[in-house]
Amino acid sequence: MKCHLVAEDSRVIEKKNKILLMGTPNVGKSVVFSALTNVHVISSNYTGTTVSYMEGVYKIGDTEYTLIDVPGTYSLAATSVAEEVAIGFLCSKPDAVLFVLNAADLEGSVKLALEVMEYNIPMVFALNLMDVSERKGFKINAKLLAQELGAPVIPTVAVKGKGLDGITKAFEEILKGEGPAAEVQTSSVCESCPGYGVNGRNGQEYWERARQIVYKVLSRTDTKPSFLDRLGEAMLRPWPGIPLTLVVILISLGVVVFGGDLIREGLLMALVEQVIVPFFERLITPMNLPTVLHNILIGEYGVFRISFEWILALVIPYVILFQAVFALLEDSGILPRISVLFDNIMRKLGVQGGSLIHIFLGFGCAVPAIISTRTATTHKERLMVATMICFAIPCISQTGALLSLLSAYSAWLVVATALTGALVFLTVSLVLRKAFKGSVSPLVLEVPNLLLPEPRAYFKKLWVRIRHFLMDAEGPMLIAVFIAAILAETGLLAGLGNLMKPVVSGWLGLPEDAVMSLILGIIRREMSVAPLVGMNLNPLQMYVGAVVSLLYLPCLSVFAILAREFNARTAVAIAAGTTLTALFVGGLMNHLVLFVQNIF
Amino acid sequence: MRYGQIIRHGHGHRHRMRHGHRMGQNSLYTVPDNRCYTVADVPDVKVLNSLGFYPGAVVHKKKRYGWGGPVLVNLATREIALGKDIASAILVKEAKEQEAK
């Protein structure tokens, strides 16, 4: 059964000339992938499963092969979706497997290799992370290892491009004259849809065999731990790990916030106000359009004004900087260390340390964060983390917008808003912990080595992500801008403002125009902040506006993702819950502060 | 302790957590830090098997984090963090000798 999961994506399964790129997680497969293929596209997610994979064109001799970056797994026991996907690929008649071994964790990766070898597909081994392995004092006899595994073993340092030519050469050798013979052999293993224990072996036997092989080929020398190793160790101890982590987070936040502000104030605002908007004014004014149309295009809320003021100047700089910093944290191996250090607190909140990675991702955008929760092992954990992200984790464009608005008033407003958000976050998690049935699996996490990210691979990844953001978010942002322009310039806003007056002005204490925030926030989160610019709010109104925006409804894309990943009922419940919380907390704080002000 | 008050162990019979340990066997969570242990019994959780936790495997317990935090162990050349609830369910014996590689 498991084999056929992947068959749904027949486009890839039916492809001829496939080479699978396999290995354990964190072994540098993606780096090998980027280095071997020039074109690289991120393929679609599987419907209903979690894991996305990449495919690219890999030229060996004169033949073009499709290299498929199979999700990293620890075994082929079909215990997770990633493993099911990997098994599915092995059963899809690939021509060969490029297996990336971890020279710094040979035993674990040889064990997985032994499982893959059961499928009788021609293999080439890349013995990657040789530099880390040497750093740790391991000496590996690659020739002997090749004998043991019965296939070529090429030592590589993929991030530095070392040894990659050798892989292509080895493939040229083994694929010469390879015909359908391999296919016949593979299908015989696949008929039974192997899950646990192909040929009657269980995981323990693979481990024992792997241990024997490693015992033969690996020797250790005593080396002094390098600076990175010592730093990696230190970051795992509460002292100095926790302060170091906080420093890293503060620096990251600082780079995003101040860097974003610098780009916005110093470059983009000037560009928008002095070059772009005047250009469109000069272009549109001579057309002598009817006043309403003219205003919709270039009036105070005109499309050609706010699309640049809001999207280009308020959102984009923060998003790009966040992605740059987050990718750096991801590649360095700092995030798993934070998960370990704060597992105890997260456990008390009803989830586990690993959930922090999803939550950090949520500070970028809730959509990928909610998709990433698919790796959670229980439904309760998934639902909890997704809900926590929707309630009180602002996305980066919203954070950027909020910070630049709030800091214009006072740093204390930033602190007050953040504290209010944190308080709501804690309350929500504690309530959810009791409210949802089921259990949350405890943390089980391999701590990777601390690594310095390699520039080429890093920028490639960053570019792919930013392009994705622009492609996915640009549409909804422009729609929001259009709606804003039409609402504001046709007088509809005034009408809606009147209608919502009891809530917006009476309860929240905001000007009637702020109803725009509530409407646009439905489309994109940061768009609930943007209209607050230029409303001349007093500090209390600004704080209330920020709190409402922070806690408000997740945007349309998040709603759609929730409906797809869970169901429509969950999406509606979360949307209603967040909206009510936002209005309740916002109004409560408004009246609380007013009440205190009246006393003094 | 919400996580599986009763956890099924490798051999199919059930242990109540924190009870029913056989002689000389203790949970990985409670044994002292900075020593090597032989795994005696592992709950039937697939991800543990995938990572190499089997009866007979030698683990080095590096440390236990306070306040209900996880346990950090070295298994072969891997460093693995295990949450309190799952570490409590792994039974270990003191390793007799440092099994050299």
The percent range for helix content of chain A is 55-70%
* Largest sheet properties of chain A: 7 strands, mixed
| Helical amount of chain B | under 10%
Radius of gyration of chain B: 12 Å
> Structural class of the secondary elements of chain A?
alpha/beta
Determine the oligomeric state from the structure.
heterodimer
In angstroms, what separates the terminal alpha carbons of chain B? Answer: 37 Å
Apparent shape of chain B? globular
Q: Strand order of the main beta sheet of chain B, please?
A: 3-8-4-5-6-7
Mean pLDDT of chain B: 77
Q: Would you report the number of β strands of chain B?
A: 8
Q: What is the count of β-strands of chain A?
A: 10
Low-confidence runs of chain B (pLDDT<50, min 5 residues)? 1-20
Q: How large a portion of the residues of chain A is in β-strands, by DSSP E? A: 5-15%
Provide mean pLDDT of chain A, rounded.
Answer: 83
Q: Strand pairing plus helix content of chain B: what structural class?
A: mainly beta
Number of helices of chain A: 28
| Poorly predicted runs of chain A | 1-8, 41-50, 179-189, 191-200
Number of helices of chain B: 2
- In sequence order, what are the helices and strands of chain B, one letter per element? EEEEHEEEHE
Our estimate of the beta-strand percent of chain B is 35-45%
